[in-house]
Amino acid sequence: MSKKHKSTRAQEHKSKKLSKADRVLREMLAEINTVSEWAAVLGFKNEKTFSRRYRNENGKRPKSILIKMKLDHAIHLLNNNPEMSCYEIAREIGKKDEKALNFFFRTHLGKSPKDCQSKE
């Protein structure tokens, strides 16, 4: 097998890893809290390699996608599951408690989880 053919096969394998990155994150949102953990779950030995390839393929940094998915899911739960406590929502997105959830929201959105709930 030529060197060029091996290189192409390796690139295809790595591209397959990246193509399932978002799905894996959605499925493991509570378990994946860092880009390093996300990269490891996908089989990347190096977080920087994963970050560079993800950004090149998707045009966005993996950290921003990780944060956005967690926020979007938490807001979805807040608006569609009024019976869920903030503690339960925090655990669903991988935060240890409602205090950590509140800090996460305030850091990234500038408001509390309850402020993000739609008023009916």
Quick structural gist:
The chain is mainly alpha-helical and 120 residues long. The protein has seven helices and no strands.
Shape: elongated
Q: What distance lies between the first and last C-alpha atoms, to the nearest angstrom?
A: 64 Å
- Total number of domains: 2
Which ranges are low-confidence, i.e. pLDDT below 50, for 5 or more consecutive residues?
none
Q: Give the beta-strand count.
A: 0
Approximate strand percentage = under 5%
SS-based structural class? mainly alpha
Main sheet record? none
* Number of distinct helices: 7
Write down the secondary-structure element order: HHHHHHH
Q: Mean pLDDT across all residues, rounded?
A: 89
Radius of gyration: 17 Å
Helix content: 55-70%
Key structural traits:
single chain; 120 residues; mainly alpha; Arc Repressor Mutant, subunit A; 2 domains
